[in-house]
Write a structure and sequence with these properties.
Blueprint lengths: L3 E4 L4 E4 L7 E6 L10 H19 L3 E8 L15 H9 L3 H18 L7 E4 L4 H13 L3 E4 L2 E4 L15 H6 L14 E6 L17 E3 L1 H13 L3 E7 L3 H16 L4 E7 L2 E3 L2 E2 L10 H6 L4 H9 L7 E2 L2 H20 L8 H12 L4 H12 L5 H15 L15 H15 L3 H13 L2 E6 L2 E6 L1
Parallel strand pairs: 3-4, 3-10, 4-5, 10-11, 12-14
Antiparallel strand pairs: 1-2, 6-7, 7-8, 8-9, 12-13, 15-16
Length: 457
């Protein structure tokens, strides 16, 4: 099946062809590193990892660039409020630079735990101030900017198709604006460069042609993606929340400066919700991988859970759904382990699996193919080879899994032996009492034709 993806810009599934033969450039909006990533954030990076693996499975060489927002992301979409990094610094007592380093490393550890392939390049906003200033200067020369008392702004009214990505109702936004526009000429104008407050020294500020200050959030992605992937590249990714503002403004800047919409495909992962509420750091349910681990779940359990829903559907999280994912993943691991050595791949099942994924990354359907193969009458060696081939895309680390080694204390071993003797003596009452005592110590006995096995309760 031809490779197809949903393009948010055109609002339809399109055949994918790379701009350069055999090579694909992907830019993904990375984290604002002022706090830990929650599992809703991480779902987006799992979608992007799936995209990268599917492209690689189709033989493409992927150049994957992810930014680190360590300056310029304000608390308000209206370009008001404080920089999230400055607020994080106040909250933690760390400097803004220390904060960025700490949470960048924490984020990268989370990706590793989820078996997400490391990007080819990480790029930090603070390392690319010169590129952002140059981009703003070009916009200024072309007449797309104006100054206010607090910064340099992009004049969105200069573009006839501003807001096409999100299909924004510009007149409706103007009429129903609930935010104070300040000195902005239009409610859809946005900051390119913010001036440092008078008589106040920021931790992160730079000199510029317009005065001391710091870049806006949107300009960093336009500048860095263009530097590393060119003015028009294959795929730009992010969360669905980026569609109406951040990605809309990236496109506007790039159209004004470079004459392109930045990326040929715009792809977005959808939210993780809890009881129909978007998971966010401001909500009471701020779930991290560490919290999942404290509840006995592994990062792979969560990765499998995300595979059960299409990336363009909102997924509701519950502990029950995660428990079901853990149980399913354990069955998958145990099945693959039981098959022993691998042999020849089933080309029919692997083709069905890949066809599902080539149809806009339909992992739920691809998983159904995997389970059909597991239940099939194929030889064990064929099943093993096929599931390992599928796991190149699923990323569940199946080949590395090993059954848990059960360390049984001598005291429990003694009870097991006593129970065996009671069974031999046909003293079933005592045997049952010993089974219960063993269970109270955290171990379960299972009597089979081959003998008695012991596992953790």
């Amino acid at each position: 099946m031809a490779l197809k993806f949903f393009d948010t810009y055109e609002r339809k599934v399109r055949d994918f062809e790379p701009l350069s033969a055999g090579k694909v450039g992907i830019y993904a909006c990375g984290p604002t590193v002022y706090d830990f990533a929650h599992i809703g954030n991480l779902r987006t990076y799992l979608f992007e990892d799936l995209l990268k693996r599917v492209l690689q499975a189709n033989g493409f060489e992927v150049n994957h660039v992810v930014n680190i927002t360590d300056v310029g992301h304000l608390t308000s979409d209206a370009d008001t409020g404080e920089d999230k990094m400055e607020l994080g610094s106040q909250r933690t007592g760390l400097s803004a630079w220390e904060l960025a380093d700490f949470y960048t490393k924490a984020f990268q550890r989370d990706l590793k735990r989820l078996n997400i392939i490391t990007p080819n390049l990480w790029c930090k906003a603070t390392d690319h101030i010169a590129e952002q200033i140059d981009f703003i200067s070009d916009l200024e020369k072309k007449g797309f900017t104006y100054r206010t008392s607090d910064g340099v702004y992009f004049d969105s009214t200069r573009l006839d198709n501003y807001g096409h990505l999100a299909r924004l109702d510009i007149e409706g936004l103007k009429a129903g604006a609930r935010v104070d526009q300040g000195e902005r000429r239009s409610v859809t104008d946005f900051a390119l460069w913010k001036f440092s407050p008078e008589n106040e020294e920021r931790q992160m500020e730079w000199n510029s042609p317009w005065g001391k200050g710091f870049p806006g959030w949107h300009i960093e992605c336009s500048a860095m993606s263009a530097k590393y992937l060119g003015d028009f590249f294959d795929i730009h990714c992010g969360g669905e929340d980026h569609i109406p503002i951040h990605h809309t403004n990236e496109i506007a800047q790039t159209e004004a400066s470079r004459g392109t919409r930045l990326a040929n495909f715009w792809m977005h992962g959808y939210f993780l919700r809890i009881d129909n509420a978007k998971m966010a750091k401001s909500s009471g349910e701020f779930l991290t991988l560490d919290l999942l681990s404290e509840r006995g779940f592994s990062p792979m359990d969560y990765r499998y859970l995300c595979h059960t829903a299409h990336y363009r559907t909102q997924m509701t999280f519950s502990w029950q759904s995660l428990e079901s994912a853990r149980a399913a993943l354990k069955r998958l691991y145990e099945s693959a382990w039981s098959w022993g050595e691998s042999g020849e791949v089933s080309t029919a099942y692997l083709k069905s699996f890949n066809d599902c994924l080539n149809d806009d990354l339909n992992m739920p359907k691809a998983l159904a193919v995997v389970w059909e193969m597991i239940r099939s009458h194929e030889a064990d060696a064929v099943k093993k080879a096929t599931i390992l081939a599928c796991d190149e895309v699923m990323g569940l680390d199946i080949d590395a899994w090993r059954p848990e080694e059960i360390v049984v204390p001598d005291s429990v071993q003694t009870l097991v032996q006593e129970r065996e003797q009671a069974r031999s003596d046909k003293n079933w009452g005592k045997a049952d009492e010993l089974r219960d005592e063993i269970l109270s110590l955290g171990f379960v006995l299972e009597d089979t034709r081959e003998g008695t096995s012991i596992s953790r309760a």
